[in-house]
Amino acid sequence: MSTSKWIKKSLGVLTFLGLAIACYAFAASSQNQLISLHVTPSAMTTRIVFLLKKPFQVGVKTTSEPAQLSIDFFNTELATSLDYSDSLIQSIHSQRINRQTLRVIFNLRNPAKVDRSSVQKICTQEVCQLALSLIHSPLPTNTHTASAIPAMQKTGAPVRSITETHSIPPAHAMAKTPAPVIQSPSPKKAEPAEMADQVADQDNTVSTSSDNTPQGAYAVTLDSRSSGPKRNAVVIIDPGHGGKDPGATGQRGTHEKNIVLAIGKDLYDDLAAQKGITPVMTRNGDYFVTLRGRLQLARKGKGDLFMAIHADAFSNVDARGATVFALSEHGATSEAARWLAQKENYSELGGVSLSDKSYMLRSVLLDLSQTATIQDSLQFGYSELQALKKVSRLHESFVEQAPFMVLKSPDIPSLLIETGFISNRDEEAQLNDPAYQKQLANALTQGIVNYLQQNPSPQTYFSR
Questions:
Q1: Which of its termini does the chain have fewer beta carbons within 10 Å around, N or C?
Q2: The domain 34-207: what is its CATH number?
Q3: What's domain 218-454's architecture?
Q4: pTM recorded for the entire structure
Q5: pLDDT tens digit string along 194-204?
Q6: How far apart are the first and last CA of the chain?
Q7: 10: helix, strand or coil
């Protein structure tokens, strides 16, 4: 072979290799990441939350023999090991189904079923979340469980953070993709789940919505304020405790009620300076307002958003950082029962009169509104987390969910912000600093503005 031909052939091989490497590098750069996995156990339910950086496809199945929860992540690889157990979860391991599909398997001590109403798939500009709850028989209480539950809930101890990668179609495309049912894993040969966003419970299946608002934009559909002149967005600011209720007390003697009122007043001033926003406070002095009274003030004020401000406390004095809470499914269910039982609520849901609706229709409309509102609250929460992390340490990098009374408005996206741990001596001093209080208020304002710009309430100046 002549030198010139050899050089040309070598250049061709090198060019091919270069293109292959470039294509691989491009594919790697566009891969998704599963940022972390968190488990919160309780007596009869176990909450599992996955955080990812981009929209995703997933398949979920439970089996009773063996007692397992299997979750398939498509076009995914596992970056770290999984090491966790509690009274329900015996162990977690991963299984490679094929080159593109990773199955994460939760080996359970007792059979459990996925609560279909608890499955949430939320995507904001910063992060995506898959959350689901397992329903199981009451678990025996023992030393391990008793110590694990508060530790998980208060310190948010994650199941080893895992990072995975996968490329998928956008969420709106996945919602239109027909999908067969995920197959049970075979002990001899595991088959991949050939479906997009399906939840299987033995032989029963249900599709989960891939859109940010489940089954359509119910929050807009239920809101009758979609026509007429533009208006300001109303933000309800709720400084916790007050008067006879001091809240938590720090090691230096600081009362929570005073700290959160100061932050609330700074937040009010910041929001009042924003074009298109009207802030309303549930209290602006040292007096007591009942929890239900705070909800009623939010409704009377025609709030578009609700933010309760608190300072956390925990027996572990080293705990620190801000936490963001939205309403849990359990809290929504209990509030729905109250709404359906009390006639004074019939004309208040998203501006739509329920007084002339049947009990069943009221129940359906309330369920749709609550589901959409929880989704909106989670998006609101992630907007706040992105803003808060610029000025404060975060206790958790995801939005926690709990059945707090003040979060139970069925049609007002609501958050409870724990600004820090007043039980931590250093953080108590920081929370007492007026300059830091203003920094927190500025961050909360930025989170509110960012959320309203991306998710404008109907007929506000933020809507187009």
A1: C
A2: 2.60.40.3500
A3: 3-Layer(aba) Sandwich (3.40)
A4: 0.55
A5: 334 455 544 33
A6: 69
A7: helix
